[in-house]
């Protein structure tokens, strides 16, 4: 069996004056699903159904963390992992990659109180290029005031408390980061050294890489180096979290910089949909505006005041709240406004000619149908985003075989912030242009990207 492989990815963030590239750079890297056979978190004795259920439970817990807005993410709740290499000589670090987080941090010695970590912990004293950052630096000022501690002006301290009572406390520092097996080295990259960390962090992981929209995040600080663009293509779960790896296992991919698939000569006639990002607080999250969803011939306006009528009035767009949903690669399921979800569920029941049954085993899905082993006919759905961006979702994006004989709808109701999860994004190239403040969706076979 091929040994687990990870593409080394850098933090590459902050203090970008030390990157000498004058033209935008493109970096293509693997994203390893945490339940993939390529992941050290993979548990071989679990079934595909077991892995699905664990992923769904993480999504539900993570959604409740977004509600509080007191934290960037649920620790270890992100679904994709990447390796970091930091210091001189390079020190490899495994971390969760997450679009719902800004701060990048890792456990560091000397640990006053660290959670158990199976791999070695980063020791700054072993790196000849390591430096603590004082409170006068831009990275320190990018921290929220409540998370920043400057009792000693020579050291920028930080404390993050998460919604499940997990926490990390430490200081900001800078060091050299190596990308892609020493092909690129970047000096003076800023990150958090966590010396007091506890809670629900995974023993296999060293920390978190922030891919959010705030000033402190990975992609924001890369800035012009990548043309303020990044994109990813996520494999369907059945390709990603099978029980055994194939001879040449496919992985999801992330691209920092221009993705050629969005050029007119590369889409092969396939039209991509582009919708504006909405500026809202906290700026960590990427906010989009859903105007309506179509099931069959029924178009439902995404509005709590109008959804009961299960109709769409093109002149009523003002009733749709701007930035009513967060797009998040780290949450598996999609969560929709509760009243709207009721109308959507009713439309699906009307459209699907199968016996509706309860999700007795998992008790998490609201809409399930009895099915045999054969393929079942399920409707296409179309999500209408602001700006005329219509994204057609196939059943792989909206339904899952939760167990033998049971097919369930993978969108759930919520009274809180909506989340457009990663199942709905699979087999799309999802491109973020932070300069133009847009997100684009291009249908694709992600196993070939």
UniProtKB/TrEMBL annotation:
<feature type="signal peptide">
    <location>
        <begin position="1"/>
        <end position="22"/>
    </location>
</feature>
<dbReference type="InterPro" id="IPR032861">
    <property type="entry name" value="TAXi_N"/>
</dbReference>
<comment type="similarity">
    <text>Belongs to the peptidase A1 family.</text>
</comment>
<dbReference type="InterPro" id="IPR032799">
    <property type="entry name" value="TAXi_C"/>
</dbReference>
<dbReference type="InterPro" id="IPR034161">
    <property type="entry name" value="Pepsin-like_plant"/>
</dbReference>
<dbReference type="GO" id="GO:0005576">
    <property type="term" value="C:extracellular region"/>
</dbReference>
<keyword id="KW-0964">Secreted</keyword>
<keyword id="KW-0645">Protease</keyword>
<keyword id="KW-0064">Aspartyl protease</keyword>
<dbReference type="GO" id="GO:0006508">
    <property type="term" value="P:proteolysis"/>
</dbReference>
<keyword id="KW-0732">Signal</keyword>
<feature type="domain" description="Peptidase A1">
    <location>
        <begin position="80"/>
        <end position="442"/>
    </location>
</feature>
<dbReference type="Pfam" id="PF14541">
    <property type="entry name" value="TAXi_C"/>
</dbReference>
<dbReference type="GO" id="GO:0004190">
    <property type="term" value="F:aspartic-type endopeptidase activity"/>
</dbReference>
<protein>
    <submittedName>
        <fullName>Aspartyl protease 1</fullName>
    </submittedName>
</protein>
<dbReference type="InterPro" id="IPR051708">
    <property type="entry name" value="Plant_Aspart_Prot_A1"/>
</dbReference>
<dbReference type="InterPro" id="IPR001969">
    <property type="entry name" value="Aspartic_peptidase_AS"/>
</dbReference>
<keyword id="KW-0378">Hydrolase</keyword>
<keyword id="KW-0325">Glycoprotein</keyword>
<dbReference type="InterPro" id="IPR021109">
    <property type="entry name" value="Peptidase_aspartic_dom_sf"/>
</dbReference>
<dbReference type="Pfam" id="PF14543">
    <property type="entry name" value="TAXi_N"/>
</dbReference>
<dbReference type="InterPro" id="IPR033121">
    <property type="entry name" value="PEPTIDASE_A1"/>
</dbReference>
